[in-house]
Amino acid sequence: MQSAGEHKTNINFDLVPRPPVVVIMGHIDHGKTTLLDFIRSSNVAAGEAGSITQHIGAYEVEHAEKKITFLDTPGHESFSRMRERGARVADIAVIVVAADEGVKPQTIEAIRAAKEASIPFLVALNKIDKPAADTDKTKGELAKHDVLVEGWGGNVSVAEISAKTGVGVAELLDLILLASEMEELTASSDSAGSGVVIESHRDRKRGVVVTLLIKNGTVRKGDWIQSGTECAVIRVMENSEGKAIEEATFSSPVRVLGFSSPPVVGNAFQICVNKKQAEEAVKLSAVPAAVLPNGEPTAGEGVLVAPLIIKADVAGSCEALEGEIEKLNSESLAIKVLRSDIGDIADDDVKTASGLPGSVIIGFKVKVSASAETLAERYGIVIYTADIIYELIDWLRAEFDRRMPKERARTEIGALQVLKVFKKEEKSIVFGGKVLRGIIKKGALFEVKRGEEVLGSGIIKNVQQSKLDVKEAEAGSECGLAASFSGKLAAGDVIDVFKEYESR
To answer: Could you tell me if 370 and 347 are in contact, meaning their C-beta atoms sit under 8 angstroms apart?
Structure first.
């Protein structure tokens, strides 16, 4: 019997047909997760914040005595990079379009991702049971984006379904299996396992949990596995239902435990003969990082430099957040990401943030440790967490907008020619004059001008006419003023009176 960690070494492996890996793509709320729920008789959407799928999930199902592996990709726009990665690792794409809403921005994006990945795709027209459903109109909209379905002058297979009731779902699965046969997908169970890291995160109780999609060969508990700069021995392996298994082969999604650090999502993985081979593979992957100049954003006048730490539950969420946050940068805002990592917000995150003034820590679907909260209060570090990504981005946008440097603008409200200075002290002055234009009012700001030269400035504290206090004096009248003041003032000078306000 072959022991764990040992794989056959001859290269003449017998290739056999393998199950297809199918990615489900489409616009938010068009029914991708509902479709998978029906197929695998579970309910992911009910457990997702805002009923939006926010991770890539991989699920293995059986239809007509044949297996199909589904990748569920998020629909929200901030997860576009995750969707593209899903398209690259899949063999076939199903683009779900709601027949009552038609083609939407993320539908177009899904079409583009599938085409760029050069994988065949078919269309699932969902929600045909809705009163507003119009399948012909939706097919016409698809045609405008170079997706010509069967019956509309093209060869893209289309299934009209209701993910809610299950109408047409069996026919959709038949089309997937037919497309799989045409692709002639093959693999060998005798070769060392290899594939793609679909997800990785750090669980509070279990440690680093990694989801793998096996594209070829066999993976066994006890094998040495390498991905990028990480390698480990597989201590625990589970199937997509969470059941412990000893081995799995091509097209199967599995969860493994054993890594000390999460491998990069989207990286390839391979099974190695032993520890030595795995460590050698790591060395080959550890290409020295390019030496970059100091990444500190240049803080020009009026530019807000915003240090930021990102913490999320899984690596894919970090990637999505980074992509969205990058969009917030502008001529007046330079976001410096100090750290982007998975796991709860801890003391070290706060200590890192405390090194730069104005740092912010955001957390997506993570908790803040009690000690980290205490440290944050002590250092004055702002922490914000959320379970829905666009809420987090909206908060961050508002927070940075609040901190943005403001420009001072002013509007003249009046002018007065000084007739006599009655009393002048170090920081105050009493004088009289004639209002040339506009009004002179209590509380207004003013500047002293002699020709074009500015000699001083101040704030009007009191206005008097006929020895009585008044709120304001109008053009053509004379008045006496008491003001806080610094600078020079003499008879014949003109004061410009104005109000000042903040503007972007």
So the answer is: no
Q: 356: Cβ–Cβ under 8 A, 6 or more apart, which residues?
A: 307, 336, 338
Residue 346 neighbours by CB under 8 Å, 6+ apart: 369, 371, 372
| Cα–Cα dist 411/429, whole Å | 24
Asked if pLDDT for residue 497 goes beyond 60, the answer is: yes
Q: Are 225 and 234 in contact (CB under 8 A)?
A: yes
Q: Which of 211, 210, 122, 133 is nearest to 173 (CA)?
A: 122
Classify residue 292: in a domain, yes or no: no
Helices 370-379 and 347-354 meet at what angle, rounded to 10? 10
E-strand ranges in 136-292 read 158-160, 186-187, 194-203, 207-216, 218-220, 224-227, 230-233, 236-238, 247-249, 253-257, 268-272
> Using CA atoms, how far apart are residues 407 and 49, in angstroms rounded to an integer?
39
Q: Do strands 453-465 and 445-450 pair parallel, antiparallel, or not at all (unpaired)?
A: antiparallel
Is 10 domain-assigned? no
Q: What is the DSSP string of 341-360?
A: EES-B-HHHHHHHHTSTT-E
The verdict on 415 and 388 lying in the same domain is no
CATH of the domain at 260: 2.40.30.10
pLDDT tens per residue, range 119-143: 899 999 999 999 999 999 999 999 9
pTM for this prediction: 0.59
Residue 44 sits in the same domain as residue 97:
yes
At 374, which amino acid appears?
Answer: T
Question: Domain range for residue 281?
Answer: 194-285
